């Protein structure tokens, strides 16, 4: 047996590699251990959980002894002994024992960390832990008989040394089900070229009974451990990154070839390139999949976190999870780990009340923290929900005034929604007592910054007395992102689409009308709201040397046209003025070298279709540089002009796009259904089957005039043929339509209830939005009626 | 024991060498994407078969005068700890084999940027080859010398 074991281990495996493998394996096991231990508290006699915990510690002990990590071996040894007694029912689990075991897990984790960093366990003194564990070994008074004590020895044996995998023939012989000679003959038959399994051959020859083979397979399966390890391999993430990058390039190359073949009128080339295209897409998706991890992989630590925090502040908290299987890119999982941990701690520490308070409020003693993850609109939503006390708006308001974040005057005018956003302002913490866990005034602002760094957003909703929900919306992957390409000073730049709100194109006298100066600072009047303008060329300092950008000098009379990209970041909106808006593209994000990171204006680089490199703008960095958001603490930092003035408590909060149709009509579309707000010059409108259409992102998009649909007179503005069409692009899963409206009024987020009683065709119902009765358009019905099918034009990525 | 091999290049009239193991390849001067607000030493980004390479103006690093736009430049692409970096040089020379015993550290009197950028000097027949420390070219980046 010894020889076989030796032969199985690759000879080239160095000590360092063994240690590395040991670390990787142990970390995985430890994560499960935290979860197991907390689960065990709920079901203290669960044999499977106990056995699983025992196995993990046992494995670590064994390997650390073999690798001469003596301290690690010493700690795990006592832990193992304690666990053995629990498993055998000699001892019963008490909170004290759980805490001690968790402390042991922490010590193990620390040592592993130190081994990873330095190769050594580090100087440490675990005497107290060891003596504590030893003391608990004899705390017999709590011991209760456990239903069916199993013979301990036997189980240790099977778990201790995984037996080398025996072949099926050997097992059959050992079981006495087959004779040696028969197995030998069957093997000969296999050698001679029979492709079937040994068991099959034996059954066919009548040498064994089928059920014996099934039994033998079971035994073999067990001997192999879980069996799963044979179908998986560990791959370094950097390896996957490289692969991902290569595939990204392949996609771009594919795009070029498809473009070329479309222009060639060569049917064979066309066919081949289409197959290449399909294959590339599949390959890309497959590679992306390999980088995906279920979010549950980081949630697994939270039962432990919740337990510790709750214990520390005398609360009873239960954690529930929904959507653990929701998958996210590995890098994103890493990036949200800390923010999520913070939110979970916060929910327990600040959110959930003490049992006595909860009882007075008519709630159950035990509070609930719910983690929820799901896909929506190409993003992943991750929510941390608690049923605790909710935000105290009065307290927040006072605190903000006290800390001089806002003035009393401002505070009086602020809505609850705006006050809610105050919790993201640095230096504001409302807990009177600073606890070990939170209340140090750093926190939510950091959470917000970190989530925004990866292109996500954070929102808070709270109902006083009923609880708080923190919702993060994060992209599924960072590797390939949709982006807008713009040009300034004859060079292209890429803007990630997550920050993009809308595009504005101004011409002629409209420029003077809508761009004004406040003490030399240009602002743009966007739907009766002032939007600070940032000139990209000026921020990048490229105008002067090129002398190219005409917009650099700000608004003056010679300017013929201005293109504004309306962006949102850090809760603020601003207009970025560029020389030209090119188009939207999927880009592969490439990291920038360390040499360029300090500039803080670029989020990476991308290789464009023509093979040239373009820089990806870091919208947050840009905003900070232009002082749009650097003043987060500034008094203006919390004023959000787009916020609706009033909120109805308890009803659902929705984002809608408000627009005008006809002379006076006012309507709303749910923002979730809107893909984009876009202007199309009137001359780009074409006709297909007597239907107005435009070309949009390589597709033919039908245009629907809302005025026509609702059978009313278009407004006068519509006759002004110079104005571009205002189009709300809406899409469902497969189809896209453009709704032509007369004027886009605003985007608002507000609570309202839809009254479905209007009965008009194309109208879902009406609601009170911004204190006015507003009809809600029934977009899905319109799409279904107007766009039965769609034709693709040209190449698309 | 045979000496080390160096890929050589010229800046003005000076003769430099980089160990061949560090050199990825030599390419013609490429179209570059400017990086606004970056240090002046960084001339731009190049797409080298899907990899993004930072182009460093070596003349600028040594505080030499700019080479006139009209004259061609070459890219010496070198592997560094920070990934691929391309040095913009005037001209590429031959691969030279140099003997360890001909090596000397930079003279103690050497001042200016070169002091931090050179690993030493090989006394070749008829001329000196200055050995460039590629990592240092990037490391002292903006802040030092």
Biggest sheet strand order of chain A reads 10-14-15-13-12-11
| Number of helical elements of chain A | 28
Q: Give the number of helices of chain B.
A: 3
Give the radius of gyration of chain A. 33 Å
The major sheet of chain A is characterized as: 6 strands, mixed
Give the N-terminus to C-terminus distance of chain B in angstroms: 37 Å
Main sheet: strand order of chain B: 8-1-2-11-10-9
Fraction of helical residues of chain A = 40-55%
| Overall mean confidence score, pLDDT of chain B | 85
Which percent range describes the beta-strand content of chain A? 15-25%
Number of strands of chain B: 11
Annotation, overall tally of beta strands of chain A:
29
Show the helix and strand layout:
The complex is a heterodimer of chains A (797) and B (145).
Chain A: H1 2-8, H2 15-42, H3 47-66, H4 70-87, H5 95-118, H6 127-137, H7 152-160, H8 168-174, H9 180-191, H10 198-204, H11 210-223, H12 237-262, H13 267-290, E1 292-294, H14 296-299, H15 302-312, E2 317-322, E3 327-329, H16 330-351, H17 355-360, E4 367-376, E5 379-386, H18 393-402, H19 408-413, H20 416-421, H21 444-453, E6 457-463, E7 467-475, E8 480-488, E9 491-496, E10 500-507, H22 509-514, E11 515-518, E12 521-526, E13 529-535, H23 536-539, H24 543-546, E14 561-569, E15 572-578, E16 580-588, H25 594-597, E17 602-607, E18 613-617, H26 619-625, E19 653-661, E20 665-670, E21 674-680, E22 686-688, E23 691-696, E24 699-705, H27 706-709, E25 725-731, E26 736-741, E27 743-751, E28 763-769, E29 772-777, H28 779-786
Parallel strand pairs in A: 2-4, 9-18, 13-15, 20-29, 24-26
Antiparallel strand pairs in A: 1-3, 4-5, 5-7, 6-7, 8-9, 8-16, 10-14, 11-12, 12-13, 14-15, 17-18, 19-20, 19-27, 21-25, 22-23, 23-24, 25-26, 28-29
Helix pairs in contact in A: 2-3, 2-5, 2-15, 3-4, 4-5, 4-6, 5-6, 12-13, 15-16, 16-21
Chain B: E1 4-11, E2 14-19, E3 23-28, E4 42-48, E5 51-57, H1 58-61, E6 74-80, E7 83-89, E8 91-98, E9 103-104, H2 114-117, E10 118-123, E11 128-132, H3 134-139
Parallel strand pairs in B: 2-11, 5-7
Antiparallel strand pairs in B: 1-2, 1-8, 3-6, 4-5, 6-7, 9-10, 10-11
């Amino acid at each position: 047996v010894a020889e076989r074991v030796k032969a199985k281990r690759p000879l080239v495996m160095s000590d360092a590699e063994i240690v590395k493998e040991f670390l990787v394996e142990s970390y995985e096991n430890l994560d499960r251990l935290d979860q197991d231990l907390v689960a065990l508290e709920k079901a203290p006699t669960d044999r499977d959980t106990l056995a699983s915990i025992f196995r993990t510690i046992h494995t670590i002990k064994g390997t650390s002894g073999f690798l001469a990590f003596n301290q690690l071996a010493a700690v795990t040894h006592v832990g193992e002994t304690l666990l053995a007694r629990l498993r055998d029912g000699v001892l019963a689990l008490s909170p004290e024992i759980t805490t001690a075991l968790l402390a042991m897990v922490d010590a193990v984790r620390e040592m592993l960390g130190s081994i990873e960093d330095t190769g050594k366990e580090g100087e440490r003194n675990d005497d107290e832990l060891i003596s504590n564990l030893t003391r608990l070994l004899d705390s017999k008074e709590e011991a209760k008989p456990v239903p069916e004590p199993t013979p301990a020895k036997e189980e240790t044996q099977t778990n201790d040394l995984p037996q080398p995998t025996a072949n099926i023939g050997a097992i059959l012989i050992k079981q006495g089900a087959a004779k040696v000679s028969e197995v030998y003959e069957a093997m000969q038959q296999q050698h001679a070229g029979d492709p079937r399994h040994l068991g099959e051959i034996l059954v066919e020859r009548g040498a064994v009974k089928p059920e014996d083979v099934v039994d033998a397979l079971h035994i073999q399966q067990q001997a192999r451990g879980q069996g799963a390890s044979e179908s998986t391999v560990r791959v370094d993430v950097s390896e996957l990154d490289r692969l991902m990058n290569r595939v990204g390039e392949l996609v771009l190359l594919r795009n070029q070839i498809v473009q070329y073949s479309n222009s060639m009128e060569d049917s064979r080339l066309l066919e081949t390139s289409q197959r290449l295209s399909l294959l590339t897409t599949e390959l890309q998706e497959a590679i992306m999949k390999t980088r995906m991890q279920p979010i549950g992989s980081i949630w697994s630590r939270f039962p432990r976190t919740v337990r510790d925090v709750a214990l520390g502040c005398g609360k009873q908290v239960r954690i529930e999870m929904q959507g653990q299987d929701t998958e996210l890119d590995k890098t994103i999982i890493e990036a949200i780990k800390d923010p999520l941990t913070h939110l979970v701690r916060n929910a327990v520490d600040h959110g959930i009340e003490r049992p006595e308070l909860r009882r007075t409020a008519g709630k159950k003693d035990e509070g609930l923290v719910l983690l929820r993850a799901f896909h929506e609109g190409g993003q992943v939503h991750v929510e941390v929900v608690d049923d605790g006390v909710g935000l105290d708006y009065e307290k927040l308001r006072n605190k903000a005034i006290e800390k001089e974040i806002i003035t009393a005057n401002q505070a009086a005018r602020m809505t609850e929604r705006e006050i809610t956003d105050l919790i993201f302002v640095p230096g504001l913490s409302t807990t009177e007592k600073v606890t070990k866990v939170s209340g140090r005034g750093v926190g939510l602002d950091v959470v917000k910054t970190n989530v925004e760094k990866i292109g996500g957003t954070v929102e808070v909703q709270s109902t006083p007395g009923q609880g708080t929900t923190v919702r993060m919306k994060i992209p599924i992957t960072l590797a390939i992102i949709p982006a807008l390409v713009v040009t300034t000073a004859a060079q292209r730049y890429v803007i990630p689409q997550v920050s993009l709100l809308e595009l504005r194109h101004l011409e002629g006298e409209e420029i003077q009308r809508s761009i004004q100066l406040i003490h030399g600072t240009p602002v743009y009047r966007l739907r009766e709201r002032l939007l600070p303008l940032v000139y990209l060329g000026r921020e990048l300092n490229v105008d002067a040397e090129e002398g190219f950008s005409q917009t650099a000098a700000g608004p003056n009379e010679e300017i013929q046209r201005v293109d504004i990209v309306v962006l949102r970041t850090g809760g603020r909106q601003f207009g970025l003025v560029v020389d030209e808006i090119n188009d939207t593209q999927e880009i592969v994000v490439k990291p920038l070298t360390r040499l360029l990171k300090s500039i803080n204006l670029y989020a990476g680089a991308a290789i464009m279709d023509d093979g040239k490199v373009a820089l990806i703008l870091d919208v947050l960095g840009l905003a900070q540089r232009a002082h749009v958001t650097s003043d987060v603490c500034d008094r203006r930092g919390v004023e959000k002009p787009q916020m609706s003035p009033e909120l109805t408590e308890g009803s659902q909060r929705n984002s809608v796009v408000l627009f005008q149709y006809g002379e006076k009509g006012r309507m709303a579309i749910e923002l979730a259904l809107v893909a984009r707000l876009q202007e199309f010059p009137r001359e780009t409108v074409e006709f297909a089957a007597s239907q107005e259409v435009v070309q949009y992102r390589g597709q033919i998009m039908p245009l629907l005039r809302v005025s026509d649909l609702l059978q009313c007179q278009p407004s006068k503005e519509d006759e002004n043929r110079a104005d571009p069409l205002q189009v709300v692009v809406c899409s469902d899963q497969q189809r896209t339509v453009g709704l032509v409206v007369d004027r886009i009024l605003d985007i608002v987020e507000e609570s309202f209830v839809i009254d479905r009683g209007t009965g008009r065709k194309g109208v879902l119902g009406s609601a009170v939005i911004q204190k006015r009765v507003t009809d809600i358009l029934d977009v899905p019905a319109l799409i279904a009626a107007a766009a039965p099918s769609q034709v693709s034009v040209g190449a698309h990525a | 024991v045979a000496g080390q091999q160096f890929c050589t290049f010229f800046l003005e009239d000076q003769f430099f060498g980089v160990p061949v193991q560090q050199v990825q390849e030599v390419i013609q001067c490429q179209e570059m994407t400017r990086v606004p607000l970056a240090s002046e030493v960084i001339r731009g980004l190049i797409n080298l078969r899907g990899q993004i390479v930072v182009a460093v103006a070596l003349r600028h690093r040594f505080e030499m005068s700019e080479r006139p736009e009209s004259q061609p430049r070459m890219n010496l692409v070198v592997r560094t700890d920070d990934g691929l970096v391309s040095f913009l040089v005037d001209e590429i020379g031959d691969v030279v084999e140099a003997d360890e015993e001909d090596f000397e550290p930079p003279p103690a009197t050497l001042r200016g940027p070169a002091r931090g950028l050179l690993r030493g000097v090989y006394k070749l027949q008829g001329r000196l080859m200055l050995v460039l420390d590629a990592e240092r070219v990037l490391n002292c980046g903006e802040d030092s010398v």
